[in-house]
Amino acid sequence: MPYGWQYAVLVILQALIVVLVRDAAALPALPRRALLGLLPLLMIGGGVVALGAIPGAVSVVTAVAAFTVPPLALLGALHVRRAALPLALVSPLLWVLVWRLPASPWTALAADLLIVLAAVSLGRLTGLLAPKAALVVGVVVAATVDVWQVAEGQVQPVARALGQAIPPQGLPDLQQLTLAGASMGWGDAYLAALAGAIVACSLRASLAAALGTLLGGLGLGLLFAVTDLLPATVPVVVGLLAAGVVEHAAVRAWAQAAVLQARGRTMRHT
């Protein structure tokens, strides 16, 4: 295959994010706003535009990631499935190891695990604020915009700038997932967490989405034969499609209920 183990490991981590997100039903119900379904588009599409156009934005984002990822990773103890709870609890130790040990693939992997946990926290919290239907639309639209931005060459300079950015005070690099020359953006991890939040109510759907993301990412990597940058949001959409196929009956029932609800609103307005 025209890529190495580094890329495969990052794809596995992205798929892992999907299956780690716990169902938000255990948390207090909050009013959900459909407009917040645009958060993935704002973070991915808008983020690329902002980082490329605003001087100093990359340095700011790098500093914010360095300071916020560790507490968000520890907060993951509230948002990951039980099997991953020990990983979240030892995240402070992972951070210390990344900070103090010489750079190596192992410390890079530890840093990536911190980002995985932080993304799970943000994804599940976003799932509390936005309806699932809006998040599905947001994920698909964000992936579409990401493909267009990669094709137009807008992502490449931003990715290079993030890779070269140095966090303040000698803190670890946590602005993107990296491993021995391969990298994956924070937005790609966040999108995987949103997919996980969408399907978390069904373990079968979560596993299908994770497997779809994994196979979609590995298959997408074949395109490295002709390019050196790929939109890592596409495998997440593949994962959502896989979950929809596995839970097609539930999806059909949900769609019918949504149509009936929309019709009821229309009748009340008229």
Description:
Helix 2 (39-53) runs parallel beside helix 7, helix 6 (105-129) packs across helix 9 (186-199) and helix 9 (186-199) runs parallel beside helix 11 (234-246). The chain is an all-alpha fold. 69% of the residues lie in helices and 3% in strands. It has one domain. The protein is globular and about 60 Å long. It starts with a helix and ends with a helix. The longest helix is centred in the middle third of the chain and has 25 residues, at 105-129. The chain has a two-stranded antiparallel sheet with strand order 1-2.
List the topology elements.
Blueprint: H1 5-20, H2 39-53, H3 57-75, H4 85-89, H5 91-100, H6 105-129, H7 132-151, H8 155-164, E1 176-179, E2 182-185, H9 186-199, H10 203-220, H11 234-246, H12 248-269
Antiparallel strand pairs: 1-2
Helix pairs in contact: 1-6, 1-9, 1-10, 2-7, 3-6, 5-6, 6-9, 7-9, 7-11, 9-10, 9-11, 10-11, 11-12
Through-space gap between termini: 59 Å
Instruction: Give me the side-by-side strand order of the main sheet.
Output: 1-2
Helical amount among residues, as a percent range?
55-70%
Number of domains: 1
- CA radius of gyration is 19 Å
Structural class: mainly alpha
Mean pLDDT: 86
Gross morphology: globular
Report the biggest beta sheet as strand number plus sense, adding barrel if it closes: 2 strands, antiparallel
Taken in chain order, the helices and strands follow as HHHHHHHHEEHHHH
Q: What fraction strand?
A: under 5%
Number of helices: 12
Poorly predicted tracts of residues: none
Give the strand tally: 2
